[in-house]
Specification:
Helix content is 31%, strand content 17%. It is built from eight helices and eleven strands. A hairpin with a 2-residue loop joins β10 and β11.
Length: 232
Amino acid sequence: MSSVLFVVSAAQGWTLADGTVHPTGFWAEELAEPHRLFTEAGWDITIATPGAVKPTVDAGSLAPQAAGGEDRAAELEAYLASIDDRLAAVVDVASVRAADFDAVFYPGGHAPMEDLAVDTTSGALMTAALDEGIPLAVLCHAPAALLAARRQDGSWPFAGYRMTSFTDEEERIGGLADKARWLVETELVGRGAEFVGGAPFEPHVEQDRGLLTGQNPASSERLARAVLDSVG
């Protein structure tokens, strides 16, 4: 049986440039849809967060406008309720090894910009997955977590990798770009990523060696299927 490690932010808020905190958490579709697909494929799923804190869903991601309509919002909410016991039984990121899994998956939401972006334990896990050839899939705002990865010489392991994330343009359209302390795309490019953005809010996935990245919530299914294909 194949296995996948979900690494999910434990943050419930995202600190903006003016010091105020924007309520957030994981984006519903970005966790629920891949979780459903891996489950249907018969994969064993482990969910980890920093400190083994139960992750919080971003309430905004369950609003009909954000989720794709009332029926889709209800579907996502019902799925998350069906796995609530799994979300309550998460393990600590510090207690897991990438080598024990066939793939590692990071769902987004703004929350990773608050904690995973500076979590060196998570960064070391990502580096290990990269070095050991384990597919590492990172979605939407979760590529912020890549920023915490470092080699012993201080270099960034993902420099030169082709990748995508929630784009600066999408952040502007969403109305939060001017309020943010920093933007994911800008930071990735600044570290040396070969960034490829697709059309705003349309499915877009990039794969470069063992790194798979999805641009936005609409990319959730495509990214999960790419992982399934990568593991075979």
